[in-house]
Amino acid sequence: MRAFQDNNGSQVLIGTAEMTVNVQQRRFTIDPLDAILCGIEQANLRVLNAEDNTPLEVNNDFDFKLVWTTSGAHALFNGNSTSETVVNENGIVLRNIDDEVENATQQVRVGIWLRPKNNPNDIPFREAGFEFVDVYISNNNNIEFEVDAAKYIAFTAAEAGGTRIVMGGGFLVPRNDRAVEYKAEIIEYFFDSQRREGLSGQIFTWTNQSQGGSVDVARFVDNTFVIGLNAASVNTIGNQYPERQRQFNGVSGRAKITITLDK
Questions:
Q1: What pTM was computed for the model?
Q2: Distance from the CA of 3 to the CA of which of 32, 54, 62, 88 falls in 20 to 30 A?
């Protein structure tokens, strides 16, 4: 995500953010990918399995531990701490404590640790991955930033011994309760390493109450809209599944987002 500030009619870049994944065996993401705090507001963050956007949950094989850390410059976990460690609980509240800064970003890190259940040898938790995400903090009435293209999951259902998945590529935009209008302008979008020229410059607008066309409420990501640019339906035991996974995991691109807030 790239954040901008208006300066006498020109856009000044004030910060950038990239989510970095470094995992073994499993891949995770933080939900939401781009969170915005305006004034005294809070964001509810959680960890998702990247393959199907389902929340990390306790299962019959593993316990998990999440170690959340942040600087605390503008926002704190639960409004009072810079670090929280939880076991078999997925979710943390990051609360803005700064209602004066005009624009700022603050990074959040989560380490994901796993250990087997029914652990007679007292095997310790081992780190399975970690994620970074930047939270954008603004006390302006108009927010502008850039988001990177991402894979999303629109539908899942058990089918014929596998799982039917509708996966798509596009842009995820965080919802804000104070927003009166959202505007997204596609800068560029690549699918299967090919630039989709016809999409560059396209503009989408919507509100909290009304979406349509390519814009919808994200199915498996809380408080988020999705701008869907292409999609495919596959079964996880089908021959096409690995190729579709490769294609949609590799989507890339950028879009400029403008959110107008109620004064």
A1: 0.72
A2: 54
